[in-house]
Design brief:
- By secondary structure, this protein is α/β, with parallel strands linked by helices.
- It has a domain of 160 residues.
- It contains 21 helices and 21 strands.
- Strand 20 and strand 21 form a beta hairpin.
- Helix 2 runs antiparallel to helix 3, helix 13 packs parallel to helix 15 and helix 18 packs parallel to helix 21.
- The radius of gyration is 30 Å and the shape is globular.
- The chain starts with 19 loop residues before the first helix and ends with a strand.
Length: 624
């Protein structure tokens, strides 16, 4: 009798493509969208082909295919298909023409607006929602009984959410009881809160948000004065964004022959103007200093999102926070790592505050706007550039620097009659501002940092002084030339002086100087003068750094902001001038000297990977 036992055959070896987790990971790398920006369109063909391979592929990839629903970009999909696969939805950004029925029960993010029946149903059926973007009725008034009932239903559904991680609300009028209850229901999980144009919040007594790390509120909102006290409820706050600025009437026109006296009056009363926002700024800075020991990032931006001439008009009528006010908020932080601000100019107070955080500051973004306010008409752009040189020489741990003038500074330093270029190697002296003089106001008499008048202009100045009836136009043109030359010297010094930080990874300079048209590659050529100084017998090893145009960064790139739109037109005009200098001119010969100085100046920054000037982005090519 045979007693041998048969050994069962080994199970068939499993293919990696039979493991659902691997298939899901593969599906995440397949493109679902084509185009960029506003031209982004839903294009699922590559992933649909993979779904046809087998049943396992289909089951694994369908959740990836329908993970995000964008009603506008997926508007061509039949409603029956959308309803059938809606259980796979995890994110809904907009519904488009399709208003349901939705069968999804596991949404994590929902973008909706007030008064939508389908959104109320989704809020009820998805209690595990993590991120809610909710737009209110804005200027729509709730007056009729039907509107009041609709509003009560909306609030009832909203109060049922208790697991939100992020809330972004705008356009609401909420009483303090409703506001506090909404946040208190989600206090155990809420980490990100953004409130803009929200009225009716006059008290937040008893509210605690122990896990909130990011907060965005509207600044200067008289309808909700308690929003600035929210920071007292957030002991773990790390990022604070302040939106908006107060708008005042445009400044009246001052005749040229009265401008000098008017500027003196402005200097005398400048302290009064700078105190307009002090009460709110002081309250906010005290709250930060007392309750937000972990705050590391501050951002102050305007709320204007319009484009073209309308945006320029809005910006010119803005009352931005003054330098001392921004400095007060920055100094309230114990460890400032990131600072972003839109402002009229840079002054000594803000510069000193940023320099005080030189050991920790890693990200700095400053955007300068023109305004029609009298307090900003006397701004000295020369001092502005000089203070930026101080920051460059002191911020030793800076990793990302963004400076934006929207083409205004480069236009000012190229005035007719001004010297073409400052002498190479000549460095302007760093200016010192007396402590007795406010940082935002030039001292009386000679403007700080402005080059002395040439002899020819000096005679004209004396003649104008002796003759009160002389035409003021010549005097204005002379001052423009002086300022243009002084600013040009400061820009040249900024581009030549060494960097205090060798950790810089991203550098963006927009509007500081005029650049050549974008080219596929850029490189910094060695300086011939430096090679001669090294001696004929010694060979100096030149470090060559090559930059290539980043994807989609050519001249035809669509501007993503009004600033880029304005400057792209100036850049195209400059490109035509550069290319039209001669039939034999090359791209290298058309490269302005200031652009060459910048490329040479950043050669030693080994960590620099992204270089962007005048809205054209280059990336570093690694050389072996």
């Amino acid at each position: 009798m045979d007693t041998t036992t048969s050994i069962p055959p080994p199970p068939p070896r499993q293919s990696p493509l039979d493991i659902p987790e691997i298939l899901i990971r593969i599906g995440q790398f397949l493109p679902l969208w084509s185009g960029e920006g506003f031209r982004l369109e839903f294009d699922p063909c590559p992933l649909l082909r993979c779904c046809l391979v087998s049943r396992a592929f289909r089951q694994a990839l369908l959740p990836t295919l329908w993970y995000l629903y964008d009603g506008y970009r997926m508007r061509n999909i039949p409603p029956a298909i959308l309803s059938r696969y809606s259980p796979y939805f995890r994110i809904i950004t907009s519904t488009g023409p399709f208003k349901g029925p939705f069968q999804c029960k596991n949404l994590t993010e929902l973008n909706t607006v007030y008064g939508q029946e389908w959104s109320r149903a989704l809020l009820v059926s998805n209690p595990g929602l993590k991120r809610l973007v909710w737009g209110g009725p804005f200027s729509r008034r709730i007056e009729t009984l039907e509107q009041q009932q609709e509003w009560q239903q909306e609030l009832k559904v909203l109060m049922g959410l208790e697991n939100l991680d992020e809330i972004r609300m705008s356009g609401f009028s909420l009483g303090e009881g409703i506001f506090v209850k909404l946040l208190r229901n989600n206090a155990s999980s809420l980490s990100n809160l953004a409130m803009s144009t929200v009225a009716g919040v006059t008290s937040i007594e008893g509210l605690e948000l122990p896990h909130l790390t990011e907060l965005q509120v509207t600044f200067g909102c008289a309808e909700s004065p308690a929003l600035l006290d929210l920071v007292r409820c957030c002991p773990r706050l790390q990022k604070l964004s302040l939106l908006g600025s107060k708008t005042r009437a445009s400044a009246a026109f001052v005749p040229p022959h009265h401008q000098q006296q008017h500027q003196q009056n402005q200097q005398m009363h400048a302290g009064e103007h700078s105190q307009e926002l002090d009460s709110e700024v002081v309250r906010l800075s005290q709250n930060i200093a007392e309750c937000c020991s972990e705050l590391t990032h501050i951002k102050f931006t305007t709320t204007s999102t319009t484009g073209g001439a309308q945006t320029n008009a809005v910006f010119r009528n803005q009352s931005f926070l003054q330098g001392p006010e921004l400095a007060l908020i920055a100094n309230a932080c114990r460890r400032l790592e990131g600072f972003t601000a839109e402002l009229a100019t840079l002054d000594l107070a803000l510069t000193s505050a940023l320099m005080a955080h030189s050991s920790t500051l890693k990200f700095l973004s400053l955007t300068f706007h023109e305004t029609d306010l009298e307090t900003t008409r006397i701004v000295d752009r020369t001092r502005e550039m000089n203070l930026l040189r101080r920051l460059k020489a002191s911020l030793s741990h800076l990793q990302d620097l963004h400076l934006d003038w929207a083409g205004r500074l480069s236009a000012n330093i190229a005035q007719a009659g001004a010297p073409a270029t400052a002498a190479r190697g000549s460095t302007a002296t760093v200016l010192s501002t007396p402590a007795s003089v406010p940082a935002t106001i030039p001292s009386t008499g000679t403007i700080i940092g402005v080059a002395p008048l040439p002899t020819a202009h000096l005679g004209a100045a004396v003649a104008t002084t002796m003759n009160p009836a002389a035409d003021a136009t010549g005097w204005d043109e002379m001052n423009v030339g002086r300022n243009a030359f002084a600013v040009q010297e400061e820009v040249a010094a900024f581009l030549e002086e060494p960097w205090a930080s060798l950790e810089l990874e991203t550098l963006r300079l927009h509007g500081m100087f005029r650049s050549a048209p974008p080219t596929p590659t850029l490189s910094a050529e060695p300086n011939d003068d430096e090679d001669k100084e090294a001696g004929e017998g010694k060979k100096k090893k030149a470090i060559k750094v090559v930059w290539r145009l980043a994807k989609g960064a050519g001249m035809q790139q669509r501007p993503s902001s009004p600033h880029q739109h304005v400057h792209s037109q100036q850049q195209q005009q400059q490109a035509q001038l550069n290319l039209g200098e001669g039939s034999g001119s090359t791209v290298r010969n058309s490269k302005p000297e200031q652009q060459s100085r910048l490329l040479e100046n950043v050669t030693g920054l080994t960590r620099l990977r992204h270089l962007c000037f005048n809205y054209t982005t280059y990336e570093r090519i690694p050389l072996l």
